[in-house]
């Protein structure tokens, strides 16, 4: 069975005991997490339950314009007041340079991209976390309004390590 069909089957079973009165669009902990899409970073790894926090995810956990858009909505429309930025060790974006990624993917695709793609490749995970924090603090709609802290999730131990600003 395809992965999507398995999800549809599970969703049907879940919907049988779904109660809309038990859920809210407002994160219970008033927390937003910006992190990588990596499968090893999960709600249980962070001690979070469904409804606790907004999870904004992309490759790398990068403060892109679109991630900032989501964080602004999270704060102003849905009441979050703390942001955790989490990058991680062994991230796929640490394993190749920006130009290597462009070369590899355009070769495999067999054609150039029709729209520009920036992968945000990086080497130093601590420096990368600091860079994302600075991007968030640089936004006038976030600075002075939300508490922002940065972390590295160590996939070797499952632990979060804080990166001072
Ligand atoms: Zn990653």
From TrEMBL:
Pfam families: Pro_CA. Zn(2+) binds at residues 36, 38, 88, 91. Its cofactor is Zn(2+). This is Carbonic anhydrase. GO terms for molecular function: carbonate dehydratase activity; zinc ion binding. Coiled coil: none annotated. CDD domains: beta_CA_cladeD (cd03379). Binds 1 zinc ion per subunit. The keyword Zinc applies. Belongs to the beta-class carbonic anhydrase family. InterPro entries: Carbonic_anhydrase, Carbonic_anhydrase_sf. Signal peptide: none annotated. SMART domains: Pro_CA (SM00947). It comes from the Bacteria. Keywords: Metal-binding, Zinc.
């Amino acid at each position: 069975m395809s992965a999507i069909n398995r999800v549809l089957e599970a969703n049907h079973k879940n919907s049988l005991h779904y109660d809309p009165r038990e859920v809210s669009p407002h994160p219970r902990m008033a927390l937003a997490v910006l992190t990588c899409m990596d499968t090893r970073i999960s709600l249980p790894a962070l001690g979070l339950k469904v409804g606790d926090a907004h999870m904004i995810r992309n490759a790398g956990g990068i403060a892109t314009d679109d991630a900032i858009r989501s964080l602004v909505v999270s704060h102003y429309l849905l009441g979050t007041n703390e942001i955790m930025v989490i990058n991680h060790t062994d991230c796929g974006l640490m394993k190749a340079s920006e130009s290597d990624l462009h070369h590899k993917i355009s070769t495999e695709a067999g054609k150039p991209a029709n729209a520009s793609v920036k992968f945000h490749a990086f080497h130093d995970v601590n420096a990368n976390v600091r860079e994302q924090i600075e991007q968030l603090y640089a936004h006038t709609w976030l600075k002075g309004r939300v508490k922002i802290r940065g972390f590295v999730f160590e996939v070797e131990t499952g632990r979060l390590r804080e990166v001072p600003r």
